[in-house]
Write a structure and sequence with these properties.
Layout: H1 9-28, E1 36-40, H2 46-54, E2 59-62, H3 65-71, E3 80-83, H4 92-98, E4 101-105, H5 108-120, E5 125-130, H6 144-155, E6 160-166, H7 179-196, E7 202-204, H8 211-216, E8 221-224, H9 226-229
Bound molecules: pyridoxal-5'-phosphate.
Length: 236
């Protein structure tokens, strides 16, 4: 009888997450490979990212530019990083340099600033548009109708590749309460796609507490912090 390798907490949590994704996909009649799992590493050190990478994860998200500036160069180079926070105009340059995808584009000004920086680098910047589906005043993101109005301008920015929509559902004990929010994001995605005349394949929705419901409603990318890395240490 051999001895098994000790399993790290991140490894066992990742196994549980893969099962949760597979179960939700089975209920929804979806292929589990159609849901990308992002590790949200905010407030966690590069060593935690390294352990998740060892367990096969490649996609990570950060929500603060300052933190990302120190962390991303301390991790292996072959990872895909997305910015998932609220982007300020004075941080756009850093965001384009550090991140493959900027999720959470929520104004025309930020979109224009990203397009300008992408042009300077002779690149196309992939982005997601953040929507405040529930209309919570404390949240960033487009009002759905304002987004529809802004689409011609956004679609005209050649240096941006709009890949889809993202949202953060209001926090609730019962994840079922998030279902209408996720469903409305999917319906809005379909409307936007029709207006733009292009596919918007990415629906970034679902976090540790509500990922199953998000997957059942069509999420293609779940952003998972706590359920992968454990409770977030308070930043210094
Ligand atoms: C922190 C964060 C997450 C992850 O939240 P958990 O509940 O810890 O899974 C997902 N998305 C965004 C935008 C975040 O800021």
């Amino acid at each position: 009888m051999g001895y098994a390798e000790p399993v790290s907490e991140i490894e066992s949590r990742l196994l549980i997450l893969r099962e949760r994704i597979a179960d939700a996909c089975a209920r929804a009649g979806r292929d589990p490979s159609s849901v990308a799992l992002m590790g949200v590493s905010k407030n966690h050190p590069p060593a935690s990212v390294a352990e998740a990478v060892r367990c096969g994860l490649r996609l990570f998200g950060e929500n603060r530019i300052q933190e990302a500036k120190a962390k991303i160069p301390a991790c292996t180079a072959d990872l895909e990083w997305h910015f998932i926070g609220h982007l300020q105009s004075n941080k756009v340059r850093d965001a384009v340099d550090l991140f493959r995808v900027v999720q959470g584009v929520d104004t025309l000004d930020i979109a224009e600033a990203l397009a300008k920086q992408a042009a300077k680098r002779d690149r196309i910047q992939p982005v997601l548009l953040e929507v405040n589906v529930s209309g919570e005043p404390s949240k960033f993101g487009w009002d759905p109708e304002r987004l529809i109005e802004a689409l011609p301008s956004l679609g005209g920015m050649d240096r941006l590749a709009i890949r889809g929509l993202m949202t953060i559902a209001p926090y609730a004990e019962d994840p079922e309460l998030a279902r209408p929010v996720f469903r409305r994001l999917r319906e809005l995605r379909d409307r936007c796609s029709e207006r733009l005349g292009t596919a918007l394949p990415v629906l970034s929705m679902g976090m540790s507490g509500d990922m199953e419901v998000a997957i059942e409603e069509g999420s293609t990318l779940v952003r998972i912090g706590t359920a992968l890395f454990g409770d977030r240490p308070v930043p210094q």
